[in-house]
Design brief:
Layout: E1 4-10, E2 18-22, H1 25-33, H2 40-43, E3 48-55, H3 58-69, H4 73-83
Antiparallel strand pairs: 1-2, 1-3
Length: 94
């Protein structure tokens, strides 16, 4: 069975949020943390995993990613804090 994840990263100051989707969350977070991916997450030092959700259907994951990306920061913050009120780095739980 395939797994898909929608995730949100931030940096140490929690100022910038990035929403992404992957089929291998551990690998993807490792790539972000080690700055192996050029672009937005590397530029803003987004290495802290503060939210993730698992899906079994890729279309559902893509839909959720697009939905969250369209939200204002306030709504994303409510989502993060519903599962991670202290904004801890969830990568250690993977």
């Amino acid at each position: 069975m395939r797994q898909y994840f929608v995730y949100i990263l931030t940096n140490k100051t929690n100022r910038v949020l990035y929403t992404g989707m992957t089929n291998n969350l551990q690998r993807r977070v490792f790539e972000h943390k080690n700055k192996l991916i050029e672009g937005f997450t590397k530029k803003y030092n987004l290495t802290k995993l503060v939210y993730f959700e698992e899906f079994v259907n890729v279309e559902d994951a893509i839909s959720a990613e697009k939905k969250i990306k369209g939200w204002l920061r306030k709504k994303k913050t409510v989502l993060i804090e519903s599962k991670n009120p202290e904004w801890k780095d969830l990568n250690i739980t993977l």
